[in-house]
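Chain A, query sequence.
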Amino acid sequence: MKNSAFERTLVLIPARMASIRLPGKPLADINGLPMIVQVARRAQEAQVGRIIVAVDHQDVFDAVTNAGFEATMTRADHQVGSDRIFEALQKADPEGKVDIVINVQGDLPTVEPEVVRASLRPLENPTTDIATLTTEITDEHEKTNPNIVKIVGSPISDTRLRALYFTRATAPYGPGPLYHHIGLYTFRRAALERYVSLERSTLEKRESLEQLRALEAGMRIDAEIVDSVPLGVDTPADLEKARAILAGRIS
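Chain A, predicted structure.
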């Protein structure tokens, strides 16, 4: 019998077919399985809750369900993953039994199950609205790379930060560690409902970082510190890396 925490937790994986750099990304083959199925398998290995893939294309729906996972069709015009997962949540749980929603990006086929589980830990604090992940930057180039999103946070334990800001700039200034934000989010249901109701904020538009919308609205985001950044597959080169990683894991 599943425990109550498992029953109240929903893992939602948004899958969007439109990708400029890697067309048809959710269906890209990784060692004999579509990438989106590999992501669902990683989520299944985490054993934290029911898993649903939120899709916008029939071919992806078929690939997911043929692999034995649950899928739900969502609108194709969602601009961000949080809107897609909210639509999926409403369809999957109209009675409101789910308390916690984990948003696992659909392009993380090598994400470790422990990383998914780690995203739940900040919600041990009842005042935390949204949980996310981070890791210390060790590559000097990444510290100044605007494609690497940094989290400016106040340490609240050896393994956790309270997020004060997210930026593409090199921040904070001065000696000390810099942290790479990992875009895997765990929401309290009420926080997700509030978040998607908000208008895009000033800093969100300026930095092109949607999590700033929550901070500007006074919502609390805490980040668990993990050992490494999961590989996000955005290019053909990333796809080859993912194939190699999973081939090594299987062997």
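The first strand starts at residue 9 and ends at 15. The chain has a mean pLDDT of 94.
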